[in-house]
Amino acid sequence: MIDMIEKEDAVISEEEAAQYDRQIRLWGLDAQKRLRGSRVLLVGLGGLGAEVAKNLILAGVKALTLLDHEQVSEESCRAQFLVPVTAQGQNRAQASLERAQNLNPMVEVHADTNRVEDKPDDFFLQFDTVCLTGCSRDLMLRVDQLCSQHNIKVFCGDVYGYYGYMFCNLGKEHNYVEEKPKLVKPTSDSGDGPEAKKAKVDPNETTMVKKTSTFCSLKDALEVDWTSEKAKAGLKKTPVDYFLLHVMLKFRTDKGRDPDPQSFAEDSQLLRQIRDDVLEALSVSGDLLNDDFISYCFSEMSPVCAVMGGVLGQEVVKDNFYHKEYGSLPKRCSSS
Fold it and tell me: Which residue range or ranges hold the THIF-type NAD/FAD binding fold domain (predicted)?
């Protein structure tokens, strides 16, 4: 695990102060220094991974490792702006390295072309934050469990056509601060009556309130017992995207890939069958997810990658602002 002293003592040079001037004005020098001491692992350099990489590099983390064993394909060139169109057949992480580094020479950007599944547990422990995109369910469960045991923050995300999701596990006790309007107590000469004795909100001042939130593991998020009374009561408030995620992860597990537009008819039929099997296994109604979803979950759509990459990158940055003592506002799991 990285020595936390290095994170707290990260020094901002004059050149960096000029580079990050607008950001420092927005969130302060101390936040930028904490961010500058963060080491992040990003797995998966598809369209979503490229967006996250861009956002983290421009924000100014200390080091970003791009891990991907896949090769650049014609499909990935459409959604992934870090790889040149001439790079087809090359490793995606290596092909993305030059453009990624050029975004911000002050960030240490590294490419790792090995399979993430082959990485030993110790490999993940050298990072402050691990962000997984385009990964299998089994791998995400393994990494989430491992990192939770060592207080390493975990983020997961994916884009399927017009759909996208993000999950984060910031620990069982995640401390953060929330900015709230400051209440002004009435003075002794404010008059009589109940209204005069009430505390009033000062619109010109705010106060920071320390809070603690508990985040569930990815295993708990995915393995909900929908036959329990508590789960049944919350079913109506659960987005159908949650069940769509189960279908897409099952497709990836069974086929070793995502739905391919080149085999639309075949994969559409397979998606229907997986949908029926998944909903039955979860003990929920088969009407929760109608056939319309099939037409909208093929390929990575660049605009969706941009939106999801912005959300995912923002949450990673916010968490590294307030390492240990403070943290970002809690978001257990989101999908869109």
Answer: 20-318
> In degrees to the nearest 10, what's the CA dihedral of 167, 172, 173, 177?
10
Q: What's the pLDDT score for residue 4?
A: 39
What's residue 187's pLDDT? 63
Q: What are the phi and psi torsion angles at 279 (to 5°)?
A: -65, -35
Q: Where are the beta strands (DSSP E) in 238-307?
A: none
Provide the pairing of β-strand 108-112 with 200-213.
unpaired
Question: Tens of pLDDT along 150-186?
Answer: 989 999 999 999 999 999 998 777 776 777 777 777 6
CB atoms within 10 A of CB 153: 25
User: From CA 82, how far away is CA 104, in angstroms rounded?
Assistant: 13
What is the average pLDDT value for the chain, to the nearest integer?
Answer: 85
Name the amino acid, one letter, at 163: Y
- β-pairing, 333-335 vs 108-112, is unpaired
Domains of the chain as residue ranges with CATH: 4-171+302-335 (3.40.50.720), 174-213 (no CATH), 218-296 (no CATH)
Please return the burial class of 308, using the count of CB atoms within 10 Å of its CB with bins 0-12, 13-18 and 19+: buried
Distance of CA 119 to the CA centre of its chain: 21
DSSP state of 134: S
pLDDT digits (tens, 9 = 90+) for 236-268: 899 999 999 999 999 999 999 999 999 999 999
d(CA 231, CA 240): 14
H or E stretch at 111: strand 108-112
Which own/partner contact pairs does 276-279 have at CB distance under 8 Å and 24+ positions apart? 277/250, 278/243, 278/246, 278/247, 278/250, 279/243
* Tokens matching residue 187: 């003075």
Query: Please, what is the Cα angle at 334 between 27 and 213, to 5 degrees?
Result: 65
For the entire predicted model, the pTM comes to 0.83
Q: How many residues does the chain have?
A: 336
